[in-house]
Amino acid sequence: MRCLLLPLISAVLNLPGIASAATDCQGTLTGRWATKGDVVMGPMKVKVDNLDAYNADGSFRAVRRFVNQSGKWEEQVTSGQWTTKPGPGAGECVLEMSLKSEFGDSSSSTTVTVIDRNTFRSFGVDAKRVK
Fold first, then answer.
1. pLDDT of residue 21
2. For residue 52, how many other CB atoms are within 10 A of its CB?
3. Which of 36, 49, 108, 128 could pair covalently with 65 via S-S, beta carbons 3.0-4.6 A apart?
4. Is 84 in contact with 26 (CB distance < 8 Å)?
């Protein structure tokens, strides 16, 4: 009996999608997110209080608040387009943004780790879903 069960168990454990389902990055990241805490940027820690909105139509708006080198809160607002796809590791998403701001146009790509439907981690700080 044991000889019959081993191939069956092995087949079930190796079915595509059971052991390693790809993260639904678009569905998970769509929404509003708040990030508060200290972000490590090179040799410095920067205090942030951000609010990001990733919309289903591919647009986004980001309000970045941070304590500058003078110790005062500063704010930058950017908007543009975003896309995402599964990242290289389990639970990871590559978030790509085309930005428009007062400083000009640019693009960025970063890998974020999805903790659960209401939390993802980027640059060592958790972003929480806002209702």
1. 55
2. 22
3. 49
4. yes
Helix (H, G, I), strand (E, B), or coil: what is residue 96? strand
Q: Once rounded to an integer, what is the mean pLDDT over residues 67-83?
A: 93
Amino acid in position 12: V
Q: Which helix (H) or strand (E) holds 60?
A: strand 59-67
CA distances 85 to 2, 61, 103, Å, are 42, 19, 27
- C-alpha 22/C-alpha 97 separation (Å) is 21
Tokens found for residue 38: 């200290």
Q: Alpha-carbon distance 55 to 94, whole Å?
A: 16
Positive/negative CA dihedral, 85, 87, 92, 94 = negative
Which run of H or of E encompasses 116? strand 104-116
Helix and strand tally (H, E) in the chain? Answer: 2, 8
92 contact partners, CB below 8 Å, separation of at least 6 = 23, 86, 111, 112, 113, 114
Copy the structure tokens of residue 28: 């998970």
